[in-house]
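Just curious: can you write a single protein's sequence together with how it folds?
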Amino acid sequence: MPNDWATFGADLHLELRGTRLRAGLTDALREAVRSGRLEAGTRLPSSRSLAADLGTARNTVADAYAELVAEGWLTARQGSGTRVARRAEPRDRPRHRAPTPPATATPVHNLKAGTPDLAAFPRADWLKAYRRALTTAPDEAFGYGDPRGRPELRAALAEYLARARGVHARPGRIVVCAGFAHGLTLLGQVLRDRGVRAAAVEPYGLELHADVLARAGLDTPALLLDERGTRVEELPSLTGCGAVLMTAAHQFPLGGALPPDRRTAVVDWARASGGLVLEDDYDGEFRYDRQPVGALQGLDPERVAYLGTASKSLAPGLRLAWMVLPEGLVDEVAAAKGTVHGASSAPDQLAFAEFLRSGAYDRHVRAMRLRYRRRRDQLVAAVAAHAPATRVGGIAAGLHAVLTLPPGTERATLRAAARHGLAVQGVSHYRRPTAAAPFPDALVVGYATPSDSAWPGALEALCGVLP
């Protein structure tokens, strides 16, 4: 009778026929290798484990392994166990394979905006915070928990945001989420459930964010742009508009701060209309030439939903972000979070809370602010020396700069960059389809993205393609 079995070390599913177990085992292993079910390098179970699974003597398995090693099907080395030999190829594998499509070439230099220097992640300090957090974590922290997030993190965020960003924050107003897009998804769902039909967006920005709102069922009309930035005075004329998404402290990607009179105007619109301002404070910690511009939320905490993230200050892979909400929105957003996939793990939240409380986050931000400012200054100096017709703007804050090019040269410059292995995007990439009065030809250069070792080469490559 056939005898089917599998082992814990390798899922063999070998079929042993007949009464001669050793011969059946060697034949079954040969066939498994020949057919490709056991790939080269696969580690087989020890002779003791396999003998126990088969209910036979260990010597029977050891002899079968030895025979296959001698024939070249297997290899055996002290400390490495018994493995399928790498020269044993399946005989029935087809000779001619379908051609593999060419892989997309990886850029040599990456100057796309939106990512910090990932090599600078504070691994040692984060590990210390993680250990301290896990050591003191209550048992209930490893359960499902409050959909608003761990109370330890919400308390630490409330203290930090009030101090560093001027946010009117109490732990009860904060909902932790797994990234800015996750938080925006929750808010879009709640706004739609409340009957909001449209959420206005800035004329330039990440299309992903407008798409998130559109998937929630909201129209996303684009506001207009002038030399002072986004024109908010048009909000009252937008039919059905109950919200507006803004990067008030540092417009992405153009780089300016919303002027004080327009900050006041957008809050006044929200008060008069019952609307909501969605404030994306994506890189508020990184301001270089003067004191940071405080969060818009401080002007009216009941009309502004503040969204922040650790993606720029630490790393996007942490999936840690937060919303500071008007009192009347907290329960609805928390309820929506229970129906939308995506959440930050409790241990990561506890570690981040410890990272904030210990002062490690402040130290890291200060160190990165100095590093990024040096890079910004090097960028400005290099462009002035190599491409004097190119103007560098949007440099008072953030992790990117806008290089305004001679008219009609953006596409040609991007083609030259691609030929030289340089990943960078033009400002037209961020223009909303419905936006009027396009910004002049320009590149959006993320000077924070490369590591310290890669930065000089990336800067040289950039200067080499500028007109």
In short: Confidence is low (pLDDT under 50) at residues 1-11, 88-98, 100-104. The two ends are 78 Å apart (CA to CA). The first helix runs from residue 21 to 35.
